[in-house]
TrEMBL record:
This is Glutamate-1-semialdehyde 2,1-aminomutase. It comes from the Bacteria. Homodimer. Keywords: Cytoplasm, Isomerase, Porphyrin biosynthesis, Pyridoxal phosphate. It catalyses: (S)-4-amino-5-oxopentanoate = 5-aminolevulinate. Its cofactor is pyridoxal 5'-phosphate. Its EC number is 5.4.3.8. It is found in: Cytoplasm. It comes from Maribacter chungangensis. InterPro entries: 4pyrrol_synth_GluAld_NH2Trfase, Aminotrans_3, Aminotrans_3_PPA_site, PyrdxlP-dep_Trfase, PyrdxlP-dep_Trfase_major, PyrdxlP-dep_Trfase_small.
């Protein structure tokens, strides 16, 4: 494929935007080469500035679960835009989306909308600290909860892809309140809790991790976390920015059968517009301003365009929940096909999958945490990525990311993708 215009646009972008991108993973630094500039997208396909058509497996990192430019969502945005784009005053549609979200997700009574997943997680932790009167949090190595200071401690996703899991600019004072454990390792968490008795406000976790590839929690780990939090008066925060409204109507809480104390959202909840949210039972949410003392605000929070996109998206998922099964089946088909193709070539690999999240790791060992994910063969990953791209398949440009399937993908698309793996020289 030819990427001349994308390369020229990237060169121009680099003159005015740091690294040429507004979010680091987009720059292809890990896999090498120039990033693809998108012109437009429809359904399962991206169309780039050079006229190439690509089958999309990132779905804007999750939001486009029904495919790009999904008509009911686009129509809702256009209708709303004609009536004004922001007021900084209450609108009815905020309550409509809140009511629908609360009805779909278990264990939450109230929800507050923000503008990104970062804001959602940052605010959730502030609320947990305000509610419990404690300062420390526990997070897991390789989990990513956005780029706010407290979370850039052994963070996953782009932070680790670019070698800055502990970013300069985060003060030691902030870093000391973030304690770190290995994913799927309950003993480590118990040890931290014992050593910091009565000081931990919250444990925050990606209930199915997507930022070190896809990693599924063991039953005993996730149940053990719940029990530990209850016993110790620690709030369990599920970061459902990726998993919310993707693993099912009720997200990971429903899929895993575990109740969280605070849940954060991003991606699908905004239908592709900038929306994040955090939610909990009334008792916790009432600690937020203006009812309570924990401050949190936003000029564009609850923005009417974003709310209309989110409402159209969630309405679609709520009235047609078979979508989640259909997506999981497609993902299983892809998993099996890629697995067979790689095995036939004798390429050591692991494929992790949960619902419509899946990732391929070029390693012999099971991938259960950040350390095992980091053992993947990077060179082979890069050959795999570029080999697929050359055949018109757009995969995440880093081994520390999950694929996100969208429901516009047909079995023919999946077969084309599997055939592309078969063609690779790995
Ligand atoms: N939490 C998780 C689990 C995420 O995957 C992400 C982003 N990929 C975030 C938080 C941050 O969201 P945003 O990029 O919208 O700030």
């Amino acid at each position: 494929m030819i990427y001349k215009r994308s390369s020229a646009l990237f060169a121009e972008a680099k003159k005015y935007i740091p690294g040429g991108v507004n979010s680091p993973v987009r720059a292809f630094k890990a896999v090498g080469g120039d990033p693809i500039f998108v012109k437009e997208a429809k359904g399962a396909y991206l169309y780039d500035e050079d006229g190439n058509r690509l089958i999309d497996y990132i779905a804007s990192w999750g939001p486009m679960i029904l495919g790009h430019a999904y008509k009911p969502v686009i129509d809702a945005i256009i209708d709303k835009a004609k009536k004004g784009t922001s007021f900084g005053m209450p609108t009815e549609i905020e309550t409509e989306l809140a009511k629908l979200a609360v009805s779909m997700v278990p264990n939450i009574d109230k929800i507050r909308f923000v503008n990104s997943g970062t804001e959602a997680c940052m605010s959730a932790v502030r609320l947990a600290r305000g509610y419990t009167g404690k300062d420390k949090i526990i997070k897991f190595a390789g989990c990513y909860h956005g780029h706010s200071d407290s979370f850039l401690i052994q963070a996953g996703s782009g932070a680790v892809t670019f070698g800055s899991p502990n970013s300069p600019g985060v003060t030691q004072g902030t870093a000391k309140d973030t304690l770190l454990a290995a994913y799927n390792n309950l003993d480590e968490v118990k040890t931290l809790v014992q050593a910091n008795k009565g000081q931990i406000a919250a444990i925050i976790i990606e209930p199915v991790a997507g930022n070190m590839g896809c990693i599924v929690p063991t039953d005993s780990f996730i149940k053990g976390l719940r029990e530990l939090c209850t016993a110790e008066g620690i709030l369990l925060i599920f970061d459902e920015v990726m998993t919310g409204f993707r693993l099912g109507k009720g997200g990971a809480q429903e899929a895993l059968g575990i109740d969280a104390d605070i849940v954060t959202f991003g991606k699908v909840i905004g239908g592709g517009l900038p929306v994040g949210a955090f939610a909990a039972k009334t008792e916790i949410m009432n600690h937020l301003a203006p009812d309570g003392p924990v401050y949190q605000a936003g000029t564009l929070s609850g923005n009417p365009l974003a709310m209309s996109a989110g409402l159209a998206m969630l309405t679609e998922l709520n009235t047609n929940p078979d979508i989640f099964d259909s997506l999981a089946k497609k993902t299983a088909f892809l998993h099996e096909g890629i697995g067979k193709a790689l095995s036939k070539k004798g390429v050591p690999h692991q494929i992790n999958r949960f619902g419509s999240m899946v990732s391929v790791h070029f390693t012999d060992e099971p991938v259960v945490d950040f350390a095992s994910s980091a053992k993947g063969n990077n060179e082979r990953f890069n050959t795999f990525f570029h080999g697929m791209l050359d055949q018109g398949i757009y995969l995440p440009p880093s081994a520390f990311e999950s694929y996100f399937l969208n429901d516009a993908l047909t079995y023919a698309d999946l077969e084309e993708t599997i055939a592309a793996v078969e063609n690779l020289n790995l």
